[in-house]
Amino acid sequence: MVRVVFFLLGLFGSASGLTAETRVFEFNYRMLANEFLSTEAVDIYIPLPLEDGSQRILEQTIRSSIPGESGVEARYGNGYFHIHRPANINNPIDADLSWTVERRVAGDVDEPLTAQEREQFLAPNQLVPVGHEVLEPILAEVHAMRVDESPAATARAIYDWVVDNVEYKKVGTGWGNGDTFWACSERYGNCTDFHALFISLARSEGIPARFEIGFPVPDSREEGEIGGYHCWVRFHLPDRGWVPIDASEAAKNPAQRELFYGTQPADRIHFSTGRDLVLTEASKRQPLNYFIYPYVELGGIPWRAKVETSFSFREVTGG
């Protein structure tokens, strides 16, 4: 068993004196891959949570049955833990990653937009078209709703349209891929579908918008299992910087529509940013739709089946 522990608390000081808008919790990410009975080499990439103005990693512990190493993908700077099992070895691959996280309520991030960010966050993704004819009827309604033609008014009208016209539900198949075409035709889905549509509409109006994904960490209980991921968006305005929105949570909680436009509660952990991610040479041919669950290659070829995972959290201190 390989164990790697990083103690970072001293870099940031103690948890005392945190504001009411701050939480500290432990988050656990468990993976078990015991189905690879193959002579081929196995490579597994597990996302690592990022650090920014609203999220700091106070302590990280990584335990892996096979040695691994940390790395960073080039396009968006997302971190990962890479486990390599050589060929002709059939040992199970068991990894347990945990972090102590300081999470703050987030608002606008007043940062100028770089040329690289403008190009990245105005461009289409495989399932997120920009300037496509399927968006034209919706944009006509958005234009009729907005109070003026400014980017700020347009972004707000897009948010309101998506919240009012897309239903949060998980019925049948087809939802959950972050597919703008699905959201336009079916008008329902989960957070990925809501935010794919928002990003397509925003980028079509020349408003840079970026996809962010992690896990919900509810503040209504002190510990427990977490069933799956959650995602949200930040878009850029010249006079405000990066503005957070969460259209799917606003649709689920109408009374909190205003909260989820411009404010990001401390009820989540952010792991990665962006769509169509490339981690390896093989993934260039089949980029990752998004990166929240382990990415696996078998003999250097992407392996699309899911490995066993579980997620949980425990509150350390409340705000």
From TrEMBL:
<dbReference type="Pfam" id="PF01841">
    <property type="entry name" value="Transglut_core"/>
</dbReference>
<feature type="domain" description="Transglutaminase-like">
    <location>
        <begin position="183"/>
        <end position="249"/>
    </location>
</feature>
<dbReference type="InterPro" id="IPR002931">
    <property type="entry name" value="Transglutaminase-like"/>
</dbReference>
<protein>
    <submittedName>
        <fullName>Transglutaminase domain-containing protein</fullName>
    </submittedName>
</protein>
<dbReference type="InterPro" id="IPR038765">
    <property type="entry name" value="Papain-like_cys_pep_sf"/>
</dbReference>
